[in-house]
Amino acid sequence: MSINFTKAIVNLLQREVADIESKSIHEMNKKEKAQSKVKQLQRDVKLSQSPSDLSSKMTRINKLNEEIKNITRIQADLAKQLVLKKTSLKQHLTKDSQ
Question: Where is there biased composition of kind Polar residues (predicted)?
């Protein structure tokens, strides 16, 4: 392969790696916020006096826990993508240096 073609691939892979890392950080922040909200709601549940208020908070906790599960799945997928892209990037960098 020509050097220019390899450099273009390397640049593309570097951008994709940066994009995946950015998405992963974003998802981590969303997960931390959701976990924080769950903790706050769990504290509030102890103070709830009415059954409807308690039910509302428990429903919200369940929705947040589902959101956390989805974010965890997304993070796992992003981690797999990141490994693949970094492996490909290393292969192209070794080709480029030869």
Answer: 47-57
